[in-house]
Amino acid sequence: MATNKKETALATAQKSGFLTLADTDFGGLLADELDGLDVSFERIKIPSAGSTVFEMPGEDGEPDAIKEFSAVILFHHPLFCYYKTKYTGGNNPPDCGSFDGICGVGDPGGNCKICPLNKFDTGENGSKACKNRRRIYVLREGEVFPLLLSLPTGSLKEFTKYLKRLLAKGK
Fold first, then answer.
1. 80: part of which helix (H) or strand (E)?
2. Which residues, other chains included, contact 100 with Cβ-Cβ below 8 Å and sequence gap of 6+?
3. pLDDT of residue 162
4. How far apart are CA 148 and CA 137, in angstroms?
5. Angle (CA) 126 130 131, round 5°
6. CB-CB neighbours of 91 under 10 Å
7. Residue 130 three-state SS
8. pLDDT grade, residue 18 (50/70/90)?
9. Given the DSSP bridges, would you call strands 110-111 and 103-106 parallel, antiparallel or unpaired?
């Protein structure tokens, strides 16, 4: 009988802690709280042009420059984009794009796997005319919303190696 009381007390204590959180519908709560608001993921900027620091969203609206960070990868997916003329930055959309790496939307559009613009030697210096990137959604400890990290083409090989190492270890 004493064992049952201990088990009941333990279950009650756990239910008031982590288990309460485990049973909480965070997605529903966040959806209710953000209803009607335009929500997008804040971005982590990767070091470029000789820089050695990441730019992370800061609490005061200004980015924080940090050398390294740790986070859990929640999700990742390919992102393809093709510009007929050389991309010069800004918010101009690509002529053709794919958020899944499977189906391109725009000109030329269609099946990315067989698209001639997604082949090497169709772009500058033997590259692909259609740029392949990877979007990674990461969650840092102590935060609720994921951050978006957009890997450039040159980082895809190392990211693939990293994923293979994790999968080889059963993670």
1. strand 72-82
2. 77, 78
3. 93
4. 5
5. 85
6. 4
7. strand
8. low
9. antiparallel
The Cα 9–Cα 35 span in angstroms is 39
Instruction: Write out pLDDT tens, residues 101-119.
Output: 999 999 999 999 999 999 9
Cis bond leading into 57, ω under 30°? no
Rg (CA), the chain: 22
**pTM metric for this prediction:** 0.72
Strands 64-66 and 72-82 come out as unpaired
- pLDDT tens, residue by residue, 121-165: 999 999 999 999 999 999 998 888 899 999 988 899 999 999 999
Helices (H), ranges, the chain: 2-15, 18-22, 26-33, 156-168
Closest CA to 46 of 159, 168, 122: 159
Burial of 164 (0-12, 13-18, 19+ CB in 10 A): exposed
Query: Please, which residues have CB within 8 angstroms of residue 137's CB and are 6 or more apart in sequence?
Result: 41, 73, 74, 75, 76, 146, 147, 148, 149
Q: What is the dihedral of CA 56, 58, 61, 62, to 10 degrees?
A: -70
